[in-house]
Amino acid sequence: MVTISAMALGGTVLSWGSRGMTGKAARADVSPLALTEWTTCRVDYAPDADTGGAYYGLAAACNGGSYRASTFCRSGWHRTDAEAAGPTTKDYSAVSNRCWSTSDGRNAWRWAAGGYTYRCSDGKMKVCASGGCTTYNTVCRYRV
What we know:
The chain is α+β, with helices and mostly antiparallel strands. It is 19% helix and 38% strand. It has one helix and nine strands, in the order αβββββββββ. It has one helix at residues 2-29, and strands spanning 36-37, 67-69, 73-74, 77-78, 82-85, 88-94, 106-113, 116-129, 132-143. Strands 1, 2, 5, 6, 7, 8 and 9 form a seven-stranded mixed β-sheet that branches. β3 and β4 (77-78) form a beta hairpin. The protein is globular.
């Protein structure tokens, strides 16, 4: 009986470990909105430097957008939330039509820079204040 209990406990512990590893791998490839990454998007353009965030001043890794920074990320993908600071609000959304002409559920690509691999996830930031609203194209840079 002791042997059977020990085997059951060992199997349970092993299943916890494999579940944790699978969850981390899946999160890296699929966003909370079920968006994925491009693997066949032709990369023939130069990366742009970050405009802020954790990787500001490091090797450029993403391209496009008015702003590129880790501050546009949540869970490794472009933010999809809102925040208010006094009379100014910022609404963040992910987009999935940058590489191809139509939306196909993909939102990001991977880019190697400075010895690391990053996910560059596309989105928009709508900033509203008393004078009206302005929308900017933004890119979340996240180390994978």
